[in-house]
């Protein structure tokens, strides 16, 4: 959605902070960060972030739009909520990270080969199809997300885990044919479409 | 004791032949023993867990949980909603909180749900099964059902993330929650003192997408249990259970460890202590069999 990206650059030319406040889930909290670093120090994936949360917040205020939105940092969030419960100012940091990740994706700026970004999209596509996650299809789509050759390699590596799950009846090979789902699929689709429609209308008019 | 009734949200991983179907089995057995009736929310859908955010924006994502709440209000009116899965509990509770904090969102959500003839108020409490056990029964009442105390078992209470944060169990600390240890003690086993990986994240969904990073954390969780002399690990969370149990072979291959640590649910401990057999406790669903627990279950 690069058109949307261009429109947003134009609209918020002078302030990435304002853009984040208006368009990112829970983004209006960003200005409350006092740079204490507790979030970054508390994060279990701390060593792997290119820019930990505290840095992301400062970069947003410094107008580093491309660096933030193209970063793979937000995709390091495991949703463990350590940062949220420890933040002295009670910022909903986990949600802001998810919000930034989603916004970057919507603008088409998220890194193309970030594995969690890919997996997160696969998860969403999987669940909206039938209303309930199909674990078998999700697992397979994950293994094959980097192409067929990689997929076979990963599948072989994961074979014993899969067999263990099948043997203990915690995975059902028949799920490949459809599997679990809600009865009122059309109702669920209507709900999701309307929600998307409202959200998009707000983004356009915001 | 009077029969207690709750509106039940089982979640995707608890379905038949899904990754935590043994959790559901053991919860059903536990509820039989405690005379709890779970009324499943008809036609419930996935909550999008904590990884749905990339594809689903705020309103679509929260609409998933709002639909479940609306269905619960319609079919199980007045009953507390109870979830056994940490992510289901969190997503549903978070949705309720957001709807009440933001009247515009509440109005939007009802427009959204009206598309399928539903409406939401989100007034009933949304609770985790362990809250029900602790708050509606209490340790003493839970202990009064014990027929086969789990003598001689040393158990590491692995609470993990989402049952513990951001909401947690009322009165418990985020850094060192005690309820799981107390539950272990109530069942007659010995909780591991100072289990320092008790609230360490297992990687959640990143165990799939970033296995190296997650497995390094899982390794520490298991290692700390061994260091304290634990026979097994117990957890209240389906993702914690799966992540800590099934990757042990991969971790062994990578780090040269020899892990073979069983990881069970609190409900499985309770079933065995309440005198039920291994099958009723869903112990045939462990990839790493909890042999000592099975032995107690098989004792006449």
From TrEMBL, chain A:
List UniProt keywords, sorted A-Z. Answer: Iron, Iron-sulfur, Metal-binding
Q: Which Pfam families match?
A: Fer4_8
Coiled-coil blocks: none
Q: What is this protein called?
A: Quinone-modifying oxidoreductase subunit QmoC
Q: Which PANTHER family match?
A: HETERODISULFIDE REDUCTASE RELATED PROTEIN, IRON-SULFUR-BINDING OXIDOREDUCTASE FADF-RELATED-RELATED
InterPro entries named among the record's database cross-references: 4Fe4S_Fe-S-bd, 4Fe4S_Fe_S_CS, HdrC_iron-sulfur_subunit, Helical_ferredxn
A Gene Ontology molecular function term of the record = iron-sulfur cluster binding
Q: Has the keyword Transferase been applied to this entry?
A: no
Listed under GO cellular component are: plasma membrane
Question: According to the lineage, what is the superkingdom?
Answer: Bacteria
Q: Does the keyword Thylakoid apply?
A: no
* Residues in 4Fe-4S ferredoxin-type domain copies: 23-53
TrEMBL record, chain B:
Tell me the superkingdom of the source.
Bacteria
Question: Gene3D superfamilies annotated for this entry?
Answer: 1.20.1050.140, 3.40.50.11810
Gene Ontology MF terms? oxidoreductase activity
Which positions fall inside the Cysteine-rich domain? Answer: 7-90, 157-244
Which species expresses this protein natively? Thioalbus denitrificans
The signal peptide annotation in the UniProt record is none
Q: What's the protein name?
A: Heterodisulfide reductase subunit B
Q: Could you tell me the keywords of this UniProt record? A: Oxidoreductase
Upper classification of the organism: Bacteria, Pseudomonadati, Pseudomonadota, Gammaproteobacteria, Chromatiales
